[in-house]
Amino acid sequence: xxxxxxDVLIVGAGxxxxxxxxxxxxxxxxxxxxxxxxxxxxxxxxxxxxxxMLELGGQxxxxxxxxxxxxxxxxxxxxxxxxxxxxxxxxGPDGQTHRFTGEMFPVSAETEAVIAEITExxxxxxxxxxxxxxxxxxxxxEWDSVTWDAWLRAQTDDDEAVRxxxxxxxxxxxxxxxxxxxxxxxxxxxxxxxxxxxxxxxDFILDKRVVGGLQKVPQLLAExxxxxxxxxxxxxxxxxxxxxxxxxxxxxxxxxxxxxxAHAPVLYSRIxxxxxxxxxxxxxxxxxxMGFVIKVHAVYDRPFWREQGLSGTAFSxxxxxxxxxxxxxxxxxxxxxxxxxSDQNADDLFALTAxxxxxxxxxxxxxxxxxxAKNPVVxxxxxxxxxxxxxxxxxxSFDMGGLHRYGADLRSAVGPIHFAxxxxxxxxxxxxxxAIRMGHLVASNIVESSRA
Length: 452
Ligand code: FAD
What we know:
The chain has 16 helices and 23 strands.
């Protein structure tokens, strides 16, 4: 078994781990990044499937994501805007397709007024939340004890308004059923993006993409680290004490003064800690779980929906694919649509055969774009639930009451072990921006400790 000694060992070559590793190197500390997979990037994965370049994981950048934007600029990458000219589409409770422009869905005047009024209330609540410390709000305990669905239903008995308000943080973000997470968790999701209104504004939250794919970010960060990134090295055990850490993979033993666990918190229990992590971490980590969404890619010989004056942007809380967009690559003649199927709908689909699943999903897309949507030349479903080193999508969140009960300890180091991941972030929570912010934060904490 080869032995390596470094100042800091980092478990996970995703955006968080690679950001931290680069910062630590710049500060003069030596690093080793141990990555379980045969590639870097984690939940960022740009791949070619049947000749089509697809973003299997994260891809969009929004204007408030300064940490990610700075990294993109520093790496010399170019961005381009998501196609958004023309009408959006909404499918209502009657199954009818309606065209619309702007952010408000084409619902009745009464429903529109209810949505506007509750959105205003939510924005006011979100404005009071510090995304880095949502548990510190005076109402945190109360807001963490009511489900997102129950709170919305207590505001109005307009079902269409509730469904449209619910899905912004539900199906579209936390990707869990809205009865399974709290109002506080929902407010954190919105606060991490600046406001509830930002979150429902597709032109804001899904603004830009990176030419060549967002996986270029971790790839270029890893390039700078050269041989200090070790692929195919799942960390199996971590011994720790006040003096430092020793990690073992199937092939390597790595000793260091500090460790960073830079992966989804649901995977901490994959590592045998010696001695075990403290009681608080044992308890806390059991209350965090991954959401689940299927990202569906359908490529056509041309972006046919544009010919009908459609932007490709489509929503419906009544559809299997609750949202879909034009996801055509920069400079590509072919047209790509991306759709999303979340939480229990995703569970139900995986009870079907691959053929039945494809048929159901394309049927749903055809409700937005017409029958041509049923005949893509390339079709692919990103299923992060089967990925051993991720186990869901997009990210992890607390169950009911967990955020208020444990949140304050989520990012606390345990001796020499530090934690960084998008799923622990405040600003940029569940996004690449949050992963990068966590990487910077943990690196600066370690640099400070190493100088103490
Ligand atoms: P990860 O990317 O999960 O990296 C962790 C790494 O640790 C992985 O490479 C894993 O293999 C490795 N690892 C785990 N356990 C071990 C172990 N024991 N030993 C060694 N290595 C280990 N975000 C956006 O900003 N915009 C989007 O449009 C967007 N869309 C998304 C769409 C999908 C389908 C998915 C899945 C995610 C999306 N996200 C998006 C979220 C974003 O991709 C993630 O928040 C971010 O990439 C997470 O980065 P990370 O470094 O924190 O963790």
